[in-house]
Design goal:
Length: about 625
């Protein structure tokens, strides 16, 4: 039966593998070979279901074994096996994909074969780590066993084999540069990473377990040696949602991320048209920050782990979620730029976005209280989503909440309707007043309340981007942070507040205050505010502050980020203390009192520090003593 020859090579397929560059990481060889073994078992199940084989399929399994002395790794299965003709066809003629051909042959007879065969050249990835490879295989048909040998060149030999049992055994004689793969912990780590949820049992060695048995009235424990099965063949995402309870989803989450905090809720994806996609996504508690996720979404293909770098498959904002996506329709061994232009990937991405938005709307519709209780943990995700994807904003805009300083939540559109009558300025724009820190802005918030105005708390790291985005989306609406100016300037009305000071007094007052402030950092303006307003108000213009925050959030300074900090100082000419300053006869006394009220304003903005703070405290004590 002996046959020798040269492997039929199509250069565009085999050449990158011979150069060991098809995959960036050589550990992928084990994923490929184990996946082939799983395919062989799944094919046998398919044939058994169609009545085309009489083989037993009760205990299908793939086994991985390492022999350090012989320097070999063996991957064996008890699946369909191969005849000599099939070895010649599927191994020697590399352009063929056996799995793909099998699926095409039986696609009209069965809805789902579970065949992985989507990873490209599979078997030949063995030569990434092996200097020689042997295949021992026996077909389920009862044909003679076959032995195939290749030393990594295009030459091979086929002989009659001596394998007695159905299935395939692939032995890799590991080359010197790859001996790290002879370590049990290395193999175990790869299997845990890539094969954790394969649909057929994967055995790697044995392990000890504690067995409890009744001994009369007592219970005794004994150590027993059992097969080390490294995978869960039936993970939650392959089951129907109707067959799962809430605890099943929580248990699966703990299986994926043993040390992660429990998620808020989940979404079960199950699509078979116009593409295939299953998965379970979980909403983590983001703690009001856009954190780099340690527990990322894991991408699988027919239960084989592919990657946790899913940026090309899902929109960027969805990478804040956790869980699993599984699809045979995603091209796996290609560049990210190709992924992003692939039509199936775009459809999958759009569908996931829709499902996430639908889930959020469902929670809000079924229980507003529950949604509000989760808002602080999910708002950053929702903000990130609507800033990234217009379609996502369109789907969730009616449930985007704001919380006022009294703790009441409202959809943003409802809130705007509520304040329109009182907080519309002379230019017919409704002004949404917001604070990022209510305690820090207590004085300003109280001033707004005295006017009958409402203030919302917007304290996420994306707030500066969100308010700019909302101003584009909402008609005749503008956002102003409560400390950006005096309350009367933030919401300007038609009526003017008359000034108690004459033009001459204002001109005399301005240099007094300019003399106690740094001219390159502060701009002084004398204004007419309510008598009960603060004597001096220090603010940073909304536009400038917002631009700086946006650019800093983006990780760079940019044009606005390089500009020095600038603040507006508004002196309230109607406040009695300001009149007192003008009434002082001595210039030094005017300066001291002006400095005192300026420092109070700086202190309220957390801008008084170091030596200036020490001097303020000392001056305050002297004023109290007098």
């Amino acid at each position: 039966m002996q046959q020798t020859g040269n492997i039929s090579v199509q250069t565009e397929n085999i050449f990158p593998i011979i150069k060991k560059a098809l995959y960036s990481d050589h550990e992928i060889f084990l994923r490929e070979l184990v996946s082939n073994g799983v395919d062989a078992c799944q094919k046998l199940k398919t044939l058994a279901g169609l009545g085309e084989t009489t083989s037993e399929i009760d205990k299908l399994r793939v086994e991985v074994a390492v022999d350090k002395k012989k320097k070999t790794i063996t991957i064996s299965d008890n699946g369909i096996g191969m005849t000599a003709e099939e070895v010649d066809k599927y191994i020697n003629q590399i352009a063929f994909s056996g799995a793909e051909e099998f699926v095409n042959k039986y696609k009209d007879k069965t809805e789902k074969t579970g065949i992985i065969g989507h990873f490209g050249l599979g078997f030949y990835s063995a030569f990434m780590v092996a200097e020689k490879v042997e295949i021992h295989t026996k077909s389920h048909t009862g044909a003679d066993a076959v032995k195939w040998t290749c030393d990594g060149s295009t030459s091979y030999s086929i002989d009659k084999g001596d394998k007695k049992e159905r299935g395939t055994e692939i032995t890799l004689f590991v080359d010197k540069d790859s001996e790290e793969f002879l370590e049990d912990h290395r193999i175990s780590g790869i299997l845990e990473k890539y094969c954790k949820f394969l649909p057929v049992e994967i055995k790697f060695g044995t392990k000890e377990e504690t067995k409890k048995e009744k001994d009369g009235d007592k219970e005794k424990e004994t150590k027993v040696t059992v097969d080390n099965i490294i995978n869960n063949p039936n993970p939650a995402w392959v089951k129907a949602p109707a067959d799962l309870k809430e605890e099943d989803y929580k248990s699966f989450f703990r299986e994926l991320y043993p040390f992660a905090e429990e998620p808020l809720f989940h979404i079960h994806l199950n699509v078979d048209y116009p593409f295939n996609l299953t998965g379970v996504l979980y909403f983590p508690k983001l703690k009001n920050s856009v954190e780099v996720q340690k527990n990322k979404i894991q991408l699988y293909c027919n239960q084989v782990f592919v990657t946790d770098s899913v940026e090309g498959v899902v929109p960027e904002f969805l990478t804040l979620l956790q869980g699993v996506l599984d699809s045979p329709d995603i091209p796996l061994n290609v560049s990210r730029s190709y992924l992003q232009s692939d039509s199936n990937v775009k459809k999958i991405s759009n569908h996931i976005t829709k499902k996430v938005a639908d889930k959020l709307n469902e929670i809000y519709k079924n229980s507003k209280e529950d949604f509000e209780s989760k808002w602080e943990d999910i708002k950053v995700f929702i903000e990130y989503g609507m800033l990234s994807e217009d379609k996502f904003y369109d789907r969730i805009k009616k449930i985007f909440l704001v919380k006022d300083t009294e703790g009441k939540h409202s959809p943003i559109q409802d809130f705007i309707e509520e304040i329109k009558a009182t907080q519309t300025n002379k230019n017919k724009k409704t002004v949404v007043l917001y604070t990022h820190e209510p305690n820090e802005h207590h004085i300003q918030i109280e001033a707004a309340k005295n006017k009958g105005y409402k203030v919302v708390v917007m304290d996420s790291p994306l707030t500066s981007h969100v308010v700019s985005f909302m101003e584009q989306k909402l008609e005749n609406v503008t956002f102003s942070r409560i400390d950006a100016d005096s309350i009367d300037k933030l919401i300007e009305k038609d009526e003017e507040i008359p000034s108690k000071l004459s033009k001459e007094e204002e001109e005399k007052l301005k240099p007094i205050f300019e003399g106690v402030l740094s001219k390159d950092k502060f701009t002084v303006e004398i204004g007419s505010l309510e008598e009960q307003d603060q004597p001096v108000i220090i603010s940073q213009p909304e536009f400038m502050r917002r631009m700086k925050e946006q650019q800093m959030m983006g990780g760079g300074a940019g044009f606005y980020g390089t500009l020095p900090e600038m603040y507006s100082v508004k002196v309230n000419g109607n406040h009695p203390i300001i009149s007192s300053i003008l009434a002082k006869e001595k210039e030094e006394e005017q300066k001291d009192l002006a400095k005192q009220v300026v420092d109070l304003a700086l202190l309220s903005q957390n801008l008084l520090k170091g030596e200036d703070l020490s001097k303020f405290i000392k001056r305050s004590v002297e004023l109290i003593k007098n």
